[in-house]
Amino acid sequence: MSRIKLLNVVTPQGHAGDLSKGSQFSFSYSSADAGCEVSLVMPYDPTPAVSNVLHPIFDMNVPEGFLADQIKRRMAKHMQIDEMRLLSVIGGNQIGRLTYQNPVEASVPVKAQVGLQQILSADTSQGVFEFLVETYFESGISGVQPKVLVPDLDKLTGSRKTMLSSDLIVKSGADEYVHLAQNEFLCMEAARIAGMETPPFWLSGGGDLFVMERFDLNSTGRLGFEDMAVLLGLNKDPHDNYKYSQSYETLAAVINHVCAQGDPLRELERFFSSVCLSVMVRNGDAHLKNFGVIYTHPGARETVQLAPVFDVTTTTVYENYNPKSGRSLVDRTLAIKMNKVKTYPDRQQLMEFGRKHCGVEKPWVIIERIAEAMSEALVAHQARIDIELFSAMQAEWDGGRAMALHDSIGTGMKRKPIAKKPL
C-alpha cells in the first residue's frame, strides 16, 4: 500500500483544512471560520503552516506506546507505518475533536461489541481486554500502559451498533507495574472524594482493569482537547524528554492565558488541587501530557477550562530499571520542576506555589481536604486492593500527607517497593 500524502482534517464545526506530507509537513486551512480552527494555538492563516516535524496538535493524536506497537505489529508487513498512516488508521477514534480522513481510503464506523458491564465482569475482564485490543487497536491514545478506546454496547439500543466515537477508555496493567489498575482506581477515588472533577470510572470485579468514560464527549458531541505539550508548541522526541520539560509554574501561566476569557482563577485552583493530589499520593508522572484543557471550539474561548483529573497513580511503589547502572531504583522526584527543582515540595513550598502562581488564598484548605479524602479512600476500598499494594500505597500516602501537612515529618523513603509478579 502506498504512502499517504494527504489527509483531510475535519472538526464538528466543519472541514478545517488539509494536512500533507512531502519533504515537509504542511497544513493549509480551507476555512477562515474560527470554529473550524484545529487548535487554540494555531489560528487561521491563509499561508500554509510548513514544518519539518508534525505540528503539535496533530502530533498529539498520533498513537504511541502500547497502541502504536499493536498497529505496527499488524500492519507493518503490508504498508509503511509513519505519522500520516497512523493518523489515517485512527481517523476520528481518538481524544479531541479532530478527525483525519484519507480521501482515497474509506473509513469504517466504530462498531460496539462489548458493554461496560461485561468489561467489569469479574470472571471475564482479562479475556475481554485481549478481545478489545484485537478489535479496537485502531484507536489513538498515548501511553506505555496497555489501554484502548472502546464503544459501550450498553449505551446502544435496538439494532444500532455503530457509534460516532468510542466513549470508554479501558486500561490493563503492565508486567513491570503490578496491580496498576487498582493503583489508579484508588488515586482517582481520592480525587473524587476530595471534590475534584473526575470522569466516571470503575475497577473491574477482578481488579485487573481500570475503565473511565472519556471527558471530551458531551451530549452535543466531541469537545476539543489539547495537552500542555501542544499549548507550549512542543513536539515528541525519541526519548520522551519533552514531557518532562518546563515546570508547574509554566503550566499555571499557560492555564491563566488560555482560560482568560472564562474563569481563570477557578481553573488555576483546580490545577493547584491536581498538583497537590499528585504530590501527596506520590505521583511522579504528572507530566505535560497529563494536564490539558477542553473546550467547544477555538472560536468560543470562554468555554476553555482545565480537563478533569486523569492518569494519576502512586509511582513510588514501583522500581525502575536503569540500564546504565544495572540497578532498579525507586524514582522519588516530580515529573517536572517546581521552584526550579524536581524534589517533592514541603508544605510551605506547596502553599507558596498555590498563592503565588495559582492565586489560591487558602491553599491549606485544599491540602487538608485532599488528605482527608485520601484517608477515606483507603478505608473505603481496602477490600478491593491487593494486600501488598495497599500496604505500599498506604505507606507512601502517609509520607505524602505528612510532608504536606507538617513540614518536618519524613516521607517513608526507606520502604521497599512491591515485588514484580513471577514470570
Blueprint of the fold:
Layout (H helix, E strand, L loop, with lengths): L5 E6 L2 E8 L3 E5 L19 E3 L4 H6 L3 H11 L7 H8 L8 E3 L8 E2 L4 H5 L4 H12 L10 E4 L11 E2 L4 E4 L8 H14 L7 E3 L6 E4 L3 E2 L2 E2 L1 E4 H4 L16 H11 L5 H18 L10 E4 L9 E2 L13 E3 L4 E3 L17 H12 L4 H19 L5 H19 L18
Antiparallel strand pairs: 1-2, 1-5, 2-3, 3-4, 6-8, 7-9, 9-11, 10-11, 12-13, 14-15, 15-16, 17-18
Helix pairs in contact: 6-11, 8-9, 9-10, 9-11, 9-12, 11-12
Approximate shape: globular
CATH topology of the largest domain: Phosphatidylinositol 3-kinase Catalytic Subunit, Chain A, Domain 5
**Average pLDDT:** 90
Q: Gap between N and C termini, in Å?
A: 39 Å
CATH class of the largest domain: Mainly Alpha
**How many beta-strand segments?**
18
Q: Sheet bearing the most strands, described?
A: 5 strands, antiparallel
Please provide a brief summary of the model.
The chain is an alpha+beta fold and 423 residues long. It has helices at 56-61, 65-75, 83-90, 116-120, 125-136, 180-193, 228-231, 248-258, 264-281, 347-358, 363-381, 387-405; strands at residues 6-11, 14-21, 25-29, 49-51, 99-101, 110-111, 147-150, 162-163, 168-171, 201-203, 210-213, 217-218, 221-222, 224-227, 292-295, 305-306, 320-322, 327-329. The chain has 3 domains: 6-101, no CATH class; 110-213; 222-405, Phosphatidylinositol 3-kinase Catalytic Subunit, Chain A, Domain 5, CATH 1.10.1070.
